[in-house]
Amino acid sequence: MSLLRDIPERELSDLLDEAQHLWETGRCCPTRCGVTRRWGVAAYREPPCGGSSTGIRAASFAVHNGEEPPVSGWNGAGNIFFSGCNMRCIFCQNWPISHKNNGRLYSLEEFAAEVRRLMRTGVHNLNLTTADHYLYPALKALADMRGEIPVPISYNCAGYFTEEALSVVLRFADIFLYDVKYLDPALAARYSGAPNYVEAMTKGLEVLHAARIPWEEDELGLLQRGLIIRHLVIPGAVDNSFRTLDLLAAYRDRGMIFKLSLMSQYFPAYRAVEHPDISRRLTHDEYDPVVARMEELDLDGWTQDLDAHGGA
């Protein structure tokens, strides 16, 4: 059952007001684009993230079996892929959605209807994927139907939050899938157009640490509440991965409860082929030492089979 179902009406109203203010003033992510907008009224210009003010643009509402085991389970996660993104990763594997804003506009009522259809498939959760730039309308749609949501709400994000927005999400999301992409600001600027990523992401980690999210699975091993931190190892950036694991171990030692998902699924998608440093697959000489560091630090979680993803 989702946290959203148990929020008292007055607190929910305040939460929606906070989300609406951040969204309407263009302060829902660290780019702080400042594009003012009002729900249902066409904005004077589209924000860089592609977030519409006349509908929720989404690419798909789909059963997804590729998340971590306690998230996908056997019936799959209920992934809602929001169109657009507040980051500009040149290697994004979902670039038609994130960069080209592919998808269709849904009214709040249509969005809710798609959520109901997805839940009827028996998914174990609602996995909001890249929803930051639709924070207010997505929360509004879910709040209006919250009595019908019997499963946890998972928030699947790039780790690129403002502290204000993250504090809103913490009050209604049960599960966090939180990326830690970079510990090197130069890499963040070069590959994701986000020179302030490290600062924003680490502030987010502090907020998550203070929230003390518990790890709760049901009797069948399905995640009901918890934090999963994801890190994608990219070519030529092993030191970035080492630094990431060291940071996460420090948070673990400070009492933060999470599991690490160490990913090897990188391939040179979208514009990565234009950049020699990352225009190739990951190699065992890069991924295996990071796995060894994870084991050395005794970080609990999952790794991926590099060979299954075409590694060298």
Short précis:
The protein has 312 residues and is α/β, with parallel strands linked by helices.
Task: Please describe what this structure looks like.
Helix content is 34%, strand content 17%. The chain has one domain (3-309): TIM Barrel, CATH 3.20.20.70. The longest helix has 16 residues, at 9-24. Strands 1, 2, 3, 4, 5, 6, 7, 8, 9 and 10 form a ten-stranded mixed beta sheet that branches. The radius of gyration is 19 Å and the shape is globular. Helix 9 packs parallel to helix 10 (284-296). The chain is built from ten helices and ten strands. The chain has helices at residues 9-24, 69-72, 95-98, 108-119, 135-144, 163-169, 185-192, 197-211, 238-253, 284-296, and strands spanning 56-64, 77-82, 104-106, 126-129, 153-157, 175-179, 216-217, 223-232, 259-263, 301-303. It is α/β, with parallel strands linked by helices and 312 residues long.
